Amino acid sequence: MEAIFDKAFENVVRLRIMSVLMVNEHYDFNAFKELLEVTDGNLASHLKSLESSNYIQVNKSFLGRKTHTTYKATNAGRKAFEAHLNYLENLIRYNNQ
Amino acid sequence: MTHAEKELAEIKSIMERSTRFLSLSGLSGVLAGVFALIGAGLAYYWVYYPNTPFGYRTQYINQDVVFLKLAITAFAVLGLSLISGLVLALKKHKKSKSSLWNAASRRFVAAFFIPLMVGGIFIVAIMFRGYWMIVAPASLIFYGMALLNAAHHTHSDIKYLGYCQMATGICAAFLPGYGLLFWAFGFGILHIVYRISMHLKYDK
User: Fold this and answer.
1) Which run of H or E residues covers position B192?
2) Is B97 left (phi over 0), alpha (psi -120 to 50) or beta?
3) A74, B64, B129, B144: most buried, per Cβ within 10 A?
4) B8 interaction partners in chain A (CB closer than 8 Å)
């Protein structure tokens, strides 16, 4: 089982985004904003950074005339997140010894 | 708590809070609307027939037989709507082989049924004191509030249905005597219109 501290999840917003995408098939921009209580710009930049690490996939579509942007975790993203979780768990186990 | 423990707790909490209860089938909304319209039709037949629903009542609701018929109809509509919702949700879950009773559905049930139960008990209590005119507006208003309250835990669009139900309830409160019509509009027509508009919005 891989256990690596991933820099991509060092930031708490990115960690939260990835947590959401691990349990939801896809999630849209406004729902993220509501749940995480962050500003548009802040959220967009973290989503962009996860996208450029290929951890999430972006899908834009139209609902009437409005754009509807949804995000989805990639396999690489899931793997990386699991490795990061393992790292955290190992750390806790190590500290408790 | 160490930093890592805090981080894991945070992840767990966000995972739980972000999942919504999405198993409610669209069909169950339409069925609830149809049951409500059938129930309203029966109530009209028992109370107003052969006058129009705008006209005078031919029967009084405080007659025991009429009251019993209306109460049974109301509970049958409620029961059938809940059962069809549950059966269709279970069917959806069987397909995906997951349990229906999870953190998301528990939060939905609590958010939806607490205002609804409180409203139901309140209406029954007030009814026993003879204030019949409160039944239609109060049931619509409490139902609207239950929908609004539950919207965070399921398809967020149901808040619009909630607003419409509350508005219908307020109108019913200002226009006494037309309770049955407002009730049929709120629980019957609005459900069906909502489902059609959601279909047009998402499934096109």
Assistant:
1) helix B191-202
2) left
3) B144
4) 85, 88-89, 92
* In a domain? residue B32: yes
| Parent domain of B156 | 24-202
What is the ipTM for the molecules in this complex? 0.79
Residue B6 is assigned to a structural domain of this protein: no
Which residue of chain A comes nearest to B20, CA vs CA?
Answer: A24
Q: Is A86 on the interface with B (CB under 8 A)?
A: no
- DSSP secondary structure, A11-49, as one string: SHHHHHHHHHHHHSS-EEHHHHHHHHT--HHHHHHHHHH
- The residue extents of the domains of chain A are 7-95
What is the domain count for chain B? Answer: 1
> Could you tell me if B50 and B110 are in contact, meaning their C-beta atoms sit under 8 angstroms apart?
no
The string of pLDDT tens digits covering residues A72-95 is: 999 999 999 999 999 988 888 888
| CATH fold for domain A7-95 | Arc Repressor Mutant, subunit A (1.10.10)
* B170 assigned to some structural domain: yes
Structural contact between residues B189 and B33, judged by C-beta atoms closer than 8 angstroms = yes
